[in-house]
Every structure is written in structure tokens, then in C-alpha cells.
Amino acid sequence: MAASNHFADRGILYNSGPRVGYNKDDAHGFNKFGQRLVKLKLGDEDIGFTAKYGWQILHNYGVLAESYRSTSNSYFGYTGTFNYEKLRFEFAYVKDGMYRDSPDKKQFASKDYAKNLNHIITGAVVYKGDDFFLSYNYGSAADYKRMHILETSYKLTSDVKVGAQIYGSQAIGYYHQMKTKEFDSHAWHYAKDIQWTQPDWMLKAGIGYTDAPRKDGIGYYERNIAQYVRGRFEPMSETMQAYVRDGETVLTVMGTYNITEKYKTGFLASYAQLPYRGNTVRTGEINWINFWEPAKDFNVGIMFGYGWAYKHDNRTPVLDEKLNYKKSHLLSADFIVDYRFNLM
Predict the structure, then answer these.
(1) Contact by Cβ (8 Å): 137, 62
(2) Distance of CA 192 to CAs 23, 108, 234, 251, Å?
């Protein structure tokens, strides 16, 4: 991946650091191989066992996930998966990470980077039936955090599906010593959704609530169990840290319509509010989304959006002299071209 210092939003490309002839914020390109592993497989998909050792891309494996960007997060360690008909058991022991914006091997660390973490252990029990799905996931970052994730969905009819998710994070060990925290002792995010699907259109709505108390401001749920990790988090309100603040309720609605077999248009809208020192702090967004797939493995995405938020300091609203929160208004546009090809 190449880099340009004149490209304002280079979220996927990391900074090079101080070098001769370079400023500290210069962008830095890279190349990397995300997977280098040894694999053992016994049995088949009905009854079987798969074990891997090495660098791996893990998508929704326990509490770990990969990035949806052009390059993925990778993890170094052991994984094991056992399938028994509709049941699946997962286990992973990983010691290092390779973040999506860098090819460098990194030891996991605390949020303030002051403490290196020896390992992360995670596992899951998954049931996947014809109409019902249930997944419980557990993770532990050595002497720092524990996580619990419960995800479930049920198909009421051939057209309607309901789902629910619970995401929890608990502080242990070194976390209590940090000065800047996400929450004091625990953070939980609860979400529900319902989806109605027809041949040419889809409509989905969801609601979420966060409980993450913090003494020195507004706490929030952090999806990542440690630094250099991408955490599992997939409710409808999933937008970085936008809708996971303590006491915040969020409503999200999404709809799409297939104009042709290759072109789809729709919208994505969210509205959220939380109480803070006599204020009802409101945030939200509305986006017009378009997807075009002219050929297999080639698609184009275009999105335009307007949003409203508030000025903040570590997620805590900044108040004016009348103790009213300061508002912000946002405009955004995304243009994505994705082409995938098979070298083998």
C-alpha cells in the first residue's frame, strides 16, 4: 500500500515517525502477508477438528475480529476449532498482533501503552441451526480485562428475523491503575434488532443501550480488549465509539432497494441521546447509500451523509457558560472501489 502526505484522511496508513528528510506525521506505505501458518485438519464439517499455529486472520473468533479495511488484523498463536453437527467450539491463545495499518509485529498492550500483555485467551461455544443462532464468547487479556459476548438470532418467518446482542467488558489487574479509563469497573452494551426481507428490498431496525459508569466523566464501551487488537462488535449501532456512551440509548434504521440486479440504493439513519448535567445530549446521522456490482468480485460503493454531534473531551460533553453542551454538525462522503482477484 502506498502513501501520500497530501491525502488528508489516511486512516489505513500509519505514520513513519521521525526520519531524515521526513516530518513526524508523514504517511508511510507498507506491504505484508497476513497469514503464515501450519494447519492440521481431522474429520469433516459435520464432525471434525482444525488446529492452526502461526499468523492468522481471525474474523469473529471468540472476542477477536478482523478489519473490514483493505488490510486485516493478524494474530500470532494457536487456535483450535471442533465441530459437532450444529455445535462449534473455538479456542485461541495469541501472543502478538499485527494491526491493520502496519506490517509490524506488536506485543499486546494496555490502553495507555504503559503495560505489555503477555497473551490473550479467548473461546466460544456456537450453535447454528436452520432458524436459530446462539454464540457465547469469552476473552481474557492477561491481568487487564475480561470480556463476555452473547449474540443470538431467530427466524420468526421466512421473511422476518429478530436478533439480540450483549457485550460486556470487566476491569481487572492493571486496568484499575490507569489514569485515563473507558469505564471504572465494567461496561455493558445491550442491543436488539428486527429485519424484514423481500426479494427486492430489505428493512432493518435496532435499538441499543450502554451502561458504563465512570466517576470523572462519561464512560463508554470499548470493543477492543487491548491495543493492537480488533474486537468483535456487530450491533446495528456499530460506528466506532459513537453510540456506546454511558446512559446512551440509540435507535438505528436501515433500508435498501434493488433498482436492478446490479444496483442497490438505500439509507442508514441513527438517533441517540444521553443525559448529562441537566442536558439531553443528542447525536445522530442520516446517510444515503448506493452499491453497484457491475461484475463478480468488483463493486463500487458511494455514500453521502449529514450528522450532528457534540464537542467532547474523552467522550464527555464540553459545556458553555450557560452549562449547555456545545453542538457540532458534520457532512461526509465515502467512495469505495473494491476489486478482488484469485491468484491460484
Answers:
(1) yes
(2) 47, 32, 11, 10
Render 165-229 in DSSP notation, one character per residue: EEEEEEE-GGGGG-SS-S-SSEEEEEEEEEEEE-SSEEEEEEEEEEE---TTS--B--S-SSBT-
Residue 160 corresponds to which cell in the numbers above? 422476518
d(CA 216, CA 278): 17
pLDDT in tens, 221-269: 999 999 999 999 999 877 655 799 999 999 999 999 999 999 999 999 9
**Cα–Cα distance measured from residue 124 to residue 140, given in angstroms and rounded to the nearest whole number:** 12
Task: Please tell me the distance from the alpha carbon of residue 248 to that of residue 281, in angstroms, as a whole number.
Answer: 9
Task: Read off the pTM.
Answer: 0.89
| Chain length of the chain | 344
Give the list of residues 6+ apart from residue 137 with CB closer than 8 angstroms, or none: 62, 63, 122, 123, 124, 147, 148, 149, 150, 151, 232
Beta bridge partners of 87: 84, 127
Q: Are strands 106-107 and 132-141 parallel, antiparallel or unpaired?
A: unpaired
Q: Environment class of residue 90 by beta-carbon count within 10 Å: exposed (0-12), middle (13-18) or buried (19+)? A: buried
pLDDT at 9 over 60: no
Query: Are 86 and 126 a contacting pair, CB within 8 Å?
Result: no
Give the position of cell 458511494: 302
- 118 neighbors 142 (Cβ within 8 angstroms): yes
